[in-house]
Amino acid sequence: MTTKTIIKEHRLSGGGVKYKASPNHGGIFAAGVADTIVLHYTGGSSFDSSVEHLCSEKTKASAHLVIGREGQVTQLVPFDTIAWHAGASQWKGRSGMNQYSIGIELDNAGELTKNQAGMYSSWFNRTYAPEEVFRGTHRNRTHPSFWHIYTEQQIEKTFAICDLLCDTYGISEIVGHEEISPKHKVDPGPAFPLDKLRQCVEADRADNSADNIFELGADRVVTATKLNVRSGPSINFEAVSAPLLTGRKVKVIERHEEWSKIEFTQTGWVNSRFLR
Ligand SMILES: [Zn+2]
């Protein structure tokens, strides 16, 4: 029986999650700026070899988490610290997405080539049977090709962890490496249900904000660990203060869709989902 996974001091705790520190990381995130999750595949031959690789000083690469094919998880970098996973990248007017994101690597061999025997090969020459292969068109391309499937346990674990991260850190966007570096990257690729993940997290947010239709002038309490306060009602506006911490009392003075303008020592906009 596994216990529930929670986040404690910027680390996953419980549920069998392991921790192995990677030397490949930057400093602490600037206050409140990590508002995005970037998903990757390892393109490696095994969970353990990928963890080793991302902990080797030579690679200069890391991620916050690696999620394996049995749903096993190893964390390499705490969530308040910059990991090196996104490389040269751009998204919605920002570049160098390592500074703004939590990186999750999924153990997966990546794109496969069909051989004459009707089997499929990875770049490291392992052979895969047809039932381990997904045929689909990558969002950055026009023609279908072959991809190593993700397992159900792995997908389920990824959805659960993304949900937890969104709730804890007020993360508002989940993207694929292929979207923030479309010229060079194809991960996580079409075998991963990225759009469905976004819909699920979105639906969860809508559920939560349905409980949050409250009167203007009402006193509310911050439920997120760190809540970003922005200059306008969307994640595209910059933070106007250090993030508010759990339990902070605020007054709602204006609403716009799922966003609330709040008053504390100053004013700013927050996602209503993180107020109670
Ligand atoms: Zn990647």
Automatic annotation (TrEMBL):
Reaction it catalyzes: Hydrolyzes the link between N-acetylmuramoyl residues and L-amino acid residues in certain cell-wall glycopeptides
Class of this enzyme: hydrolase
Pfam families referenced in this protein's UniProt entry, alphabetically: Amidase_2 (PF01510), SH3_3 (PF08239)
Keyword ATP-binding: no
Enzyme Commission code: 3.5.1.28
Membrane as UniProt keyword: no
Domain (SH3b) ranges: 217-276
The entry's keywords: Cell wall biogenesis/degradation, Hydrolase
Name this protein carries in UniProt: N-acetylmuramoyl-L-alanine amidase
Species annotation: Aliiglaciecola litoralis
